[in-house]
Amino acid sequence: MMPRHLVPSSSPCSRVRPSRAAAAPTTIPISTTTRLHQRLIFPAAAAAAAAAAPMDGATTRPSPPHHSHRLEALSREHETIPERLAVVTGGNRGIGLEVCRQLSVQGVMVILTARNEKRGKDAVESLRHECNLSNIAYHPLDILDDGSVASLAKHIETRYGKLDILVNNAGVGGVVVDQDGLRALNIDPNTWRSFNCFLSKSIQMLSGKAAHLLERVVVQTYDEAVKCLNTNYYGIERVTEGLLPLLKQSTSGARIVNTTSLRSELQRMPNEKLREELRDADAWDEKRIEAMLDEFLEALEHGRLEEAGWPTMLPAYSMSKMVVNLYTRILAKRHPEMRINCVHPGFVKTEINWNTGVIPPEEGARGAVKLALLLPDDGTTGCYFDQTELGVAW
After folding, report:
1. Contact indicator for 347, 358 with CB cutoff of 8 Å
2. CB 312: neighbour CB atoms within 10 A?
3. Alpha-carbon distance 96 to 101, whole Å?
4. In 10 A of CB 189, how many CB atoms?
5. From CA 281, how far away is CA 279, in angstroms rounded?
6. What pLDDT does residue 174 have?
7. Phi-psi region of 54 (alpha: psi -120 to 50; beta: other; left: phi over 0)
8. Is 384 among the catalytic positions?
9. The Cα angle at residue 278 between residues 30 and 340, in degrees rounded to 5
10. What are the structural domain ranges in the chain?
11. 259 phi and psi angles, rounded to 5 deg
12. φ, ψ (nearest 5 deg) of residue 93
């Protein structure tokens, strides 16, 4: 079967699968020859080209090709370029907000990004005033939009000329949840954590009535699956590829930290053949990952997840995090000069798990901060961390 791209309707360069609803489709499939990611080139600010028009009859001579670069270098001399500069996606709440705070406290200049401008600016203001932090700023970022990523990259290139830390934290749960029904289950939070009941294929720890209710209150739909994969995997890929040219200019050793999940562990993949294939990162690239995700969505669309051996509980979320781990390993091999890792933050009480978690965001942020700041230049790369400790996910 020919793979189909995933393109959000708001961006002609991103990927979206067509909606199952026939009446008013919101997505349009595009040719498989269309490139999702065009390599982004971020020129220096062109100061000379913005000059006023010449006076009556006057003629102007074109500036030498290197002139704008010299002006850019001179303008940067008047700014303080931070020793370490970090970008955190999804930084306006939860773990992302706490990662921003902890990095800023350690003296890192932090660019807190969020899609919602008001929420992003409010988050920055709260950190500045409540924590007395000045080394933090907001910049809008929609990780589903190539243009938004390019705008952020151009801002960083023009003002700082480099990037040292990228924390890919933004993500979604990928399911439709009846939160009132979920609360009616009255499941002890430690049960959720210890047995991972709402995520496992078997829900034997719950009573039959609760299991039946759970199936009704946590529902995987096709459209939510598309949104989940677009955000949790393709969004990370888009942001990372867009900012890689700046990470290569790091003066302190580039670090990339990708947020993953306990659901990413390959032991949760029912398909034994695919499980073994996923362990061999050398055999994978982004094109093969895309083809696999297309097969997964095809099975989901036609109700064949269990038959084909795909995860059946939180399937899209599980698949998105499995491929985040795989992409992390691919990047680490491709860029050995960088330290690139993924981290499961723990069962943190945040909106993504409907506040059923048991540890606070302050604790959940520690793993990402450790991987961003404490790894030596020859330290661990291409690995999975369970909070602050090295873990096993494949």
Report:
1. yes
2. 14
3. 9
4. 15
5. 6
6. 87
7. beta
8. no
9. 85
10. 80-174+232-268+322-390
11. -75, 130
12. -160, 170
Bridge partners, residue 194, by sequence: none
* Catalytic residue of the set 233, 234, 317, 327: 317
Architecture of the domain made up of 80-174+232-268+322-390: 3-Layer(aba) Sandwich (3.40)
- Record the tokens describing residue 114, joined without a space: 């969020």
Closest C-alpha among 164, 161, 147 to residue 40: 147
Q: How far apart are CA 122 and CA 91, in angstroms?
A: 11
Residues of the chain with pLDDT under 70: 1-79, 178-215, 352-357
Q: What is the Cα–Cα distance from 153 to 162, expressed in whole angstroms?
A: 9
Q: Which two tokens stand for residue 162?
A: 């480099």
Cα 39 from Cα 332, distance rounded (Å):
19
Place of tokens 């830390």: 165
Q: What is residue 142's predicted lDDT score, i.e. its pLDDT? A: 98
* Token digits of residue 96: 């992302």
What's the CA angle centered on 233, arms 140 and 343, to 5 degrees? 90
The pLDDT score that the predictor gives to residue 186 is 64
Among positive and negative, which fits the CA dihedral 94, 96, 99, 104?
A: negative
CB-side exposure of 45: number of CA atoms within 13 Å? 18
Q: What is the pLDDT of residue 96?
A: 96
